[in-house]
Design a protein that fits this description.
- By secondary structure, the chain is an alpha+beta fold.
- The chain is 34% helix and 9% strand.
- It has six helices and five strands, in the order E-E-H-E-E-E-H-H-H-H-H.
- The strands form two sheets. The chain has a three-stranded antiparallel sheet, covered by helices on one side.
């Protein structure tokens, strides 16, 4: 099998460059400094945890993020069971997106909504992420708000080389017609590149 070296030193298989790049990205982020994140026990978060809390360094406010499959309701430890986890490697990708979203100048509720939209795609998509297209994403019946919030996630994934560029359009009549799947069916959520210190690379 032919292989080549990426800048990060990871071997990139010519058979599935997208998965190899994603695995390299997960390794990079997982060894970074996650001091702004805690797990459900209030300890430093790790990529093994299914619930993360972002602790705002200025206010100390904690924002709860579910890291597993979309559709888990409840507070506290809800969603913290192993069977709630997304399949590998997407369990790592969603944590990367939590890190990126948390370091974006948007409201806490919007950060949660963006992560929720990404989890929704990773939970219900047919086939691997790198095989997704505008058509396949639209076939899932997501609402306009979900599609709009997916755009930054898809742009990030394309920029990191873990999928092709996919631009999702919004159907102005979609939500009004009642054909879109409501976000509240699964989860009730309010409506820069990361500055995370990644350690020595």
């Amino acid at each position: 099998m032919c292989a080549m070296k990426t800048l990060g030193g990871c071997e990139q298989s010519m058979i599935n460059k997208y998965i190899d790049r994603l695995n390299c990205l997960i390794k990079l982020y997982s060894v970074g400094n996650l001091y702004q994140f805690e797990n459900i026990l209030g300890k430093p978060a790790s990529f093994e945890d299914l619930i993360w809390f972002y602790v705002d360094p200025s206010s100390g406010r904690r924002t709860r993020f579910l890291c597993g499959q979309h559709g888990i309701r409840g507070k506290g430890s809800a969603g913290n069971c192993p069977e709630n986890a997304l399949p590998t490697p997407y369990d790592g990708l969603v944590k990367i997106w939590i890190i990126e979203s948390s370091n974006t100048r948007i409201s806490a509720s919007e950060k949660k909504a963006r992560v929720s939209s990404a989890r929704k795609l990773l939970s219900f998509m047919h086939g691997p992420l790198y095989a997704q297209s505008e058509t396949s994403i639209h076939s899932l019946g997501f609402s306009n708000s979900t599609l709009v919030r997916l755009r930054p996630f898809l742009e990030f994934c394309a920029a990191e080389g873990i999928m092709k560029t996919v631009r999702v359009s919004v159907d102005e009549n979609r939500d009004r017609s009642g054909h879109a799947r409501s976000d509240s069916t699964h989860e009730n959520l309010p409506s820069m590149q990361s500055v995370l210190a990644l350690g020595e690379v």
